[in-house]
Amino acid sequence: MNRKKFLLSWVTLIAGTKLLLAGSEKAVAAPAIRFGIVTDLHYADRLPNNSRYYKQSLTKLSECIELMNEQGVDFLIELGDFKDQNIHPNEEETLRFLETIELKFRQFKGPVYHVLGNHDMDSISKDQFLSKIHNSGFSKARSYYSFNAKRHHFIVLDPNYTREGIGYDRGNFDWKDCHVPEEQLKWLEEDLRKHHQPAVVFIHQQLDGPAFDGDHARYCPDNADRVRAILERSGKVLAVFQGHYHEGGYNVINGIPYYTLKAVIEGDGAQNNSYAIVEIWKNLNTAIKGYRKAVSKTLVKS
Q: In 10 A of CB 12, how many CB atoms?
């Protein structure tokens, strides 16, 4: 692969990495786990709309997968709004968009996982979306779930419900009205209680609204504070990875880092792609290596 086409936005050396020098050669301790993240592809076979280039998401995802395969990351996860719909929505057409982008996603040579975003239920149901995707290790895809990999625990949440607890379905997907139902909150608390490994959380909508000014809360579940409280009480969460807010962001609230990855859909051409590799080290420090537009960060365990 021609590495020049990948622009690493910011290169960092993570604190605590052991660097051993032997003559002109140097050996670096390997991270405990490495995984890839990508978000907000909004794939659809339609013309661009303002800054959104729907068709290009297929090519952008190809570039991401090529790198992830080359790097041999342990798994690849997309953080929601995997596909979109046409100007005049059609259920069969929307399902074809989903099938096309899912086929490309499965070209990653390792485990793959999905997070549900609001646009994933635009002109189709949640059950239809779940029936067309694959989450590795599960016979049937679920909207919220957890899995283990290399002595780490990973949790996927689904806040795609209205304030009344009604799941998004075929156009009922108001992005400003999202909520994590009580049943899922209880599941989350119990899941964190019974798993003792360091945990990482994935969610589409943002949980770090209080770190922003103005009306940023519209990007968050209306009960994001309750979700954060559960994560904080567990004492196990290393980081939360999010999508939804296309500009991306990074905040730390009560010791938990919240990293929002920039959207793939925004911008014309490969230079406007966005994806990252996350490396967690034995000392629980975490390095995010951003490619193209994605921002790199080093998260030091306090």
A: 12
Question: What is the C-alpha R_g of the chain?
Answer: 19
DSSP annotation of 296 reads: P
User: What does the pLDDT look like over 133-178, one tens digit per residue?
Assistant: 999 999 999 999 999 999 999 999 999 999 888 888 887 778 788 9
Contacts of 259 (CB under 8 A, 6+ apart): 239, 240, 241, 242, 249, 250, 288, 297, 299
Residue 218 is predicted with a pLDDT of 85
Q: Residue written as tokens 């962001």?
A: 249
pTM of the entire predicted model: 0.90
Q: What does the pLDDT look like over 44-83, one tens digit per residue?
A: 999 999 999 999 999 999 999 999 999 999 999 999 999 9
CA 68-220-195 angle, to 5 degrees, is 60
DSSP 134-184: --TT-SS--SSEEEEETTEEEEE----B-TTSPBPBTTB--TT-----HHH
Runs of H (alpha helix) within the chain: 56-71, 91-105, 126-132, 182-194, 224-234
Nearest to 107, CA basis, from 175, 171, 46, 59: 59
CB atoms within 10 A of CB 9: 15
Which DSSP letter does residue 190 get? H
Cα 158 from Cα 161, distance rounded (Å)? 8
B/e letters for 261-293, b = 16+ CB within 10 Å, e = fewer, are bbbbbbbeeeebbbbbbbbbbeebbbbbbbbbb
Determine phi and psi for 80, rounding to 5 degrees.
Answer: 110, 165
